[in-house]
Design a protein that fits this description.
Elements (H helix, E strand, L loop, with lengths): L1 E8 L2 E4 L4 E3 L2 E4 L1 H9 L4 E9 L5 E10 L2 E5 L18 E7 L1 E6 L8 E4 L3 H5 L6 E9 L6 H20 L9 E6 L16 E9 L7 E3 L2 E2 L6 E3 L1 H5 L3 E3 L11 H5 L2 H9 L5 E10 L3 H17 L4 E5 L5 H15 L3 E8 L20 E6 L3 E4 L4 E4 L21 E4 L19
Parallel strand pairs: 1-8, 2-4, 6-23, 9-11, 13-18, 13-19, 19-20, 20-21
Antiparallel strand pairs: 1-12, 3-4, 5-11, 6-9, 6-10, 7-8, 14-15, 14-17, 16-18, 22-24
Length: 428
């Protein structure tokens, strides 16, 4: 499958009484854009705010981060099975509004949401502090609806808003165009690739339920078996976030659209390796489901005749077992495996980093220790509310100080220890 991504660089956002992109600035009519959001009877109120890099702004509690995109050529539409009909995406051309995001925020579902600071030490840990953010702040009706119903309403509002904003880029000439093409199985055995190691990406998707969900073409992945997907399908909106795991290592929809493992494998394809496929597998709660999914991962590795695999995780604790099972079974097949995770090693960094371990996991990339303490200074403006700071994962009773500063673990910062490597931490 061949996909062209045409990047429209966004250098700012402002409100007005019309919608357009003018000289790299997104112009939004907030009153018009919010109307479809308010059509959902579960949403009591909604409004938009703008946060730019370097501003003294704190966004919390953050639910999802979504990059506006629009398909301009080829089958399907952005976010198939969610806000568009089910159709295979991953080919043709898609325009990408690079440098901005739609962020959903507000008192939405509960304790596992996050914080994005646009300046200060918190901004140093989140890649989303570098974007121009159009923030959709929602408040839900107090009508007895469940947290799952609230989550769905917020998720669909965010995706639909990003798609509407993306439409503004449909007729524009991109600032840059990149082409990505996934080989067929037959092509992966071609003469020019035969001497390169056969490598696949195993992407673990959060699917533990209780608001820990990921969707592929609109299907909750806990209902699926491990399978293969074209990398360009992932880049074209086939996978979206629906989970409320700890903010530091949750994969937002933005992460899926811009998966750095996929992008780096594409860059090395035909040079240092032969990128032969992408395997998606779920992270379920019960051992039988974990065994089944990891068995299928190993079977597909056999089918692809892999020499090596990169495995990325989402979440921590219970999913550590899925990670280690995938690693062990791949290594038992003779597949050299590198795993990407993060650590919960205690605030002093001295505890065991993962809840599971095995000698087969001898090549590990870490996104950092999510238990590390950080002090976030007060900001001049808060988008959303501070009511949940003490309750979100990584916070504690007294995290929010009287002056508006926050002492908490890195867990509270959206994207700080992301297990795709999409973060700003590094070590040497």
């Amino acid at each position: 499958m061949k996909l062209e991504l045409g990047y429209i660089d966004i250098k700012g956002i402002r409100f007005d009484d019309y919608n357009a992109i003018e000289d790299g600035v997104l112009v939004v009519n907030p009153d018009e854009l919010v109307k479809p959001v308010l059509e959902d009877e579960l949403i009591k109120s909604a409004h938009f705010e703008i946060a730019a890099p370097g501003e003294s702004v704190r966004i919390t509690p953050v639910k999802d981060v979504i990059e506006p995109r629009v398909k301009v050529e080829g089958p399907g539409a952005i976010f198939p099975g969610m806000i568009a009909k089910v159709d295979t995406v991953g080919s043709g051309r898609t325009h990408v509004m690079r440098g901005m995001a739609v962020v959903t925020a507000g008192p939405i579902v509960g304790f596992q949401e996050g914080i994005i600071d646009m300046t200060g030490p918190g901004a140093d840990y989140s890649p989303f502090s570098q974007l121009h953010n159009l923030v959709l702040v929602m408040e839900m009706q107090d009508n007895g609806a469940t947290a799952h119903e609230y989550e769905k309403a917020a998720r669909m509002a965010g995706l639909a808003t990003a798609a509407r904003v993306g439409e503004l880029a449909r007729e524009l000439v991109p600032d840059e165009v990149e082409v990505f093409e996934t080989p067929t199985i037959a092509q992966s055995y071609s003469d020019e690739l035969k001497d390169l190691p056969r490598v696949a990406y195993v992407m673990m998707l959060q699917s533990q339920g209780l608001l820990h969900d990921t969707y592929c073409y609109g299907v909750d992945v806990k209902r699926t078996l491990t399978t293969m997907i074209s990398a360009t399908e992932v880049m074209d909106g086939a996978i979206v976030s629906g989970n409320c795991v700890s903010a530091c290592d949750k994969n937002t929809t933005y992460h899926h659209l811009n998966n750095p493992v996929i992008q780096d494998l594409f860059k090395q394809h035909g040079k240092t390796l032969n990128y032969v496929g992408t395997i998606i597998t779920n992270e379920n709660v019960y051992l039988a489901d974990k065994l089944r999914s990891s068995d299928w991962t190993a079977k597909l590795a056999d089918f692809l005749s892999l020499d090596a695999a990169i495995v990325s995780q989402e979440g921590f604790g219970n999913p550590d077992t899925d990670l280690i099972l995938n690693c062990k079974k791949l290594e038992a097949k003779g597949v050299k495996t590198v795993i990407i995770t993060d650590e919960y090693a205690g605030q002093d960094g001295k505890s065991q980093s993962l809840a599971d371990a095995d000698v087969a996991a001898d090549a590990v990339v870490t996104g950092g220790n999510a238990n590390e303490l950080i002090l976030l200074p007060p900001m001049d403006r808060v988008i959303g509310c501070l009511d949940y700071v003490d309750k979100i994962a990584g916070g504690h009773d007294g995290s929010l100080r009287p002056d508006g500063s926050i002492e908490a673990e890195l867990q509270v910062i959206t994207g700080s220890t992301n297990e795709m490597g999409f973060n700003r931490l590094s070590a040497r």
